[in-house]
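Comment thread on ticket #2218

A.B. wrote:
> Attaching the input chain for the structure job we discussed in standup.
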Amino acid sequence: MIVKTVAFGNWSEAFIENRFQNRINIIFSDDNNRGKTLVVQALLYALGNNPIFPSSFDDYNQYFYIKIKVGRKYVEIMRKQNTFSVLQDGNLTIYDSTSDFKMFFNNHIYKLPRYHYDGQIYHSDLSLFFQLFFLPQDKRNTSNIINPGFTNKEHFIEMVKCIGKEDVKASPDEIKQVKEKIKEFQNKISRLLKRNQFSKMNPDLALRVQPGFSNIIFQQFEIKLREADKQIAGLVNKRNRELSRKVKLESLITELRSLNQNIEIGKIICGDCGSDRIVYQSGDLSFEITNDIVRRQILDSITSQINYRLTLITEYSQEINSLQAKYQELLKESPDEVSDIILYKDVILENINSDLKVSEYQVEISHLEERLKEIDESFNSEIEKGKILINRIISELISNYLKIDPHSEINIDSLFTTMKQTFSGSEGQIFYYAKLVAIAKILKIPFPIIIDSFREGEISTHKEQIMINGLKLLHRQVIITSTLKKQEYSENKYENLDRVNSIDYSDITTNKILSSKYKIEFDKLLKKFNITTASA
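C.D. wrote:
> Ran it. Output below, let me know if you need it in another format.
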């Protein structure tokens, strides 16, 4: 992926940066607060990142645009709040949430890794994924990811292990389930063997019919039923929500097609103002659909969303059916301790059938043990590969660090420092740089390295030059920001560097990057997406 243009603003004022090149780009100024950080934040936000803007910036009322090159194709994205409009191959598609846009990102920009953590499978969040190549200015902490919350450094490490893999395979949770199933069959066999002696009198029967023991059995059984019922109810609610969205989208298509017929018969105007402009509003964006081509594109976009909802509804239905089957099995297979009492009168028939059941259970155990062996081998192999990959990155990280500070005595044995070992100042900046470069070199993911406030921690000129040379060796797009001292600025520090595209922001008014001089050009971008002032 190569960044070509970043823009943000509204119908009154805006800013557009289209000077990026496919090499090292240094956005610099002779003072702070010239908008360098806002440009970097806008770049990632347009790609789906969580908002990280300063509180003084009114991002709520702004549009954010980015043009990128993915392979040989260009993709243009316009975002306002949580609504995304995407232009690709001449087609316009609208996504009403960040989760829907994540689906587009995964299908058309880069396949996001799926990883295991704490017995569950996660589809990497965009904000976590971006930290593989993006370092923001604020909230840095070398002992954890930026802005930890739902995810943390363990999520990041597991995500790194899965980069480039086809998909996750057996999880620790599946291993646990198979072992529990084996144990379940073994217990059934044990009970069946005991029941073969039942006609001679089972000494456990008296104990099993005691009220206290029976209550425990029934309580445990009730917990299982309630948990299964809770899971089914949750999935039914999800399916109903998606069904409701699908029906609304189908209704919207009907309205738009009906509107199309009306337009072909005559002309529609507003009864209040007399305007013949027709606007379709989706989330936080409004599109003028008087144009026939735009209307068809929006219909295609809505149809795509309907198909996506159908897929979700089908998946939820399959999960519900599976859980309902398990629920019915629970009802049928009431606790065996209770069954023993009920079946006492049929003990002779039970003795006849028990031998057959024991054989069946032994066959099932054999199959499960084979599966367990396969899972263990596969999972252990993946764990080992993941450890090797992480160790390669750590080794590269250490090498990168020592190239910049060869006399350092710091101890690095992970992608993150310990809480007590948190680096700050120049140490922290070098650590982050060394890690980003190591990840880029080992994983080779096709994204530019983006570092805001490249000289954080008072990096010396000598160390900075080593770092820039290291970035050149990656042969990929790099976007970094830097604030120069007066003497450095007067000496044209970055303009004289080989293979560096220097972009000067010194002429931008302090704390006022948005300007009316970009209004006409930004209006053209908005109209390119058929966005109207109705949403401004």
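A.B. wrote:
> Thanks. Noting for the ticket: The radius of gyration is 31 Å.
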